[in-house]
Amino acid sequence: MAQKVEKHTDNETTTFVSLLHKPKTSIEAIALAKSIDENSERLVQAGDSKAFLTEVVRNDLLDNLDNWGRFTFLPNLEIMEEVVSLLSGELKIGNQNVNVPVTKFNNLIASIGVDRHRFTDTFKVLSENIPGSVPILHGGEEEQRLVMHASANSYAIPIIERGKKVFQEIAAHLLVPNRIRVDTAHVVSLLSDERIIANIFYAVRVKSESQEKLKTLCLWFTTTWGILTVLASREETQGAFISLNQSHWRMLPVLDIDKLTKKEITDLAAVFDMFKDKQPSRIPDQFGSEGKIDDFRIELDTAFLNALGIAVEKEDLLLLYHEIGSSLKQWIGD
């Protein structure tokens, strides 16, 4: 219950309630509310209704004013604590707390393209390459999200006077999605050999751009920790169908490529090259939501950590994956 107070203290807490199964009747709703009010457990139930409770201290709320969804994005306290730790540059793996440089994506971004509405207002999609047309990635179906390595699959021609200039200003190698269907996507971010634009992805240029740094960023979004931050920053539209607009991406915590050493960037870029054309299973299946954990997931995360000089036990990763997999299954459903 919210209460107005004259003065706040650091030990104040807020409890977020995530409904896992909604009450079917008003009586059941009242019973669930009573259980929430009286219970100190993380999981409370009344009849068939069920809720997951997350208690957050005031300072953590203030530090995450841009997105309190980080405290409720999955019904698993351990995973949510993992993401909150990421905000301060700490990876929690087993008994290890490993520091990595993290920053808001906005601090790295030089430009972030156009949304699908402005794309439609600026360009007309073509079925072939004609004089004056530009390369694009059109659509966001599963086939466009199978591997990190992307290529233009269509062309577009500007339909407004500034169209050509818009393309020159925003076309980029790195693509991040506006919309994702989590249960059919295999990777989050894409990297193209040529500068392109897209209607469902934002084309992102970074300030201190190099091919190796772009490979490192694309790899980051394919790691477990990159995926978790994307899920935690999502705007949920319908079940596993989520969206992230430009402001969501700008506030997203990412690996700070400007704080890494030249060797770390080179080694991480090499890891990207190793995995760029390999196709993982769909994201929930990578974490074993339907059984076996994908070897791609284990191998890529291990290679990523090793490139940063971090040694990790496979069993610690598997424990993390099982937590994520069961939480994704709970969120998405069967």
Layout of helices and strands, plus pairs?
Layout: E1 13-21, H1 26-38, E2 43-46, E3 49-57, H2 58-63, H3 77-87, E4 90-93, E5 96-99, E6 102-104, E7 109-111, H4 116-122, E8 123-126, E9 134-137, E10 149-150, E11 154-158, H5 163-170, E12 172-177, E13 179-181, E14 190-198, E15 201-206, H6 211-222, H7 224-232, E16 235-238, E17 241-243, H8 246-250, E18 253-255, H9 262-275, H10 283-286, H11 295-307, H12 314-332
Parallel strand pairs: 9-14, 10-14
Antiparallel strand pairs: 1-3, 2-3, 4-5, 6-18, 7-15, 8-11, 9-11, 12-14, 12-15, 13-17, 16-17
What labels describe this entry?
25% strand, 334 residues, 18 strands, three-stranded antiparallel sheet, alpha+beta, eight-stranded mixed sheet
Structure at a glance:
36% of the residues lie in helices and 25% in strands. The chain is built from 12 helices and 18 strands.
Structure commentary:
The chain is α+β, with helices and mostly antiparallel strands and 334 residues long. The protein folds into 2 domains: 1-63, no CATH class; 104-332. It contains 12 helices and 18 strands. The protein has helices spanning 26-38, 58-63, 77-87, 116-122, 163-170, 211-222, 224-232, 246-250, 262-275, 283-286, 295-307, 314-332, and strands at 13-21, 43-46, 49-57, 90-93, 96-99, 102-104, 109-111, 123-126, 134-137, 149-150, 154-158, 172-177, 179-181, 190-198, 201-206, 235-238, 241-243, 253-255. The strands form 5 sheets. Strands 7, 8, 9, 10, 11, 12, 14 and 15 form an 8-stranded mixed beta sheet that branches. The chain has a 3-stranded antiparallel beta sheet with strand order 1-3-2. Strands 13-17-16 form a 3-stranded antiparallel beta sheet, with no helix packed on it. A hairpin with a 2-residue loop joins strand 4 (90-93) and strand 5 (96-99). Helix 3 crosses helix 7 (224-232), helix 6 crosses helix 7 (224-232) and helix 6 packs across helix 9 (262-275). The longest helix has 19 residues, at 314-332. The protein is globular, with a radius of gyration of 21 Å. The model has no long low-confidence stretch (mean pLDDT 86).
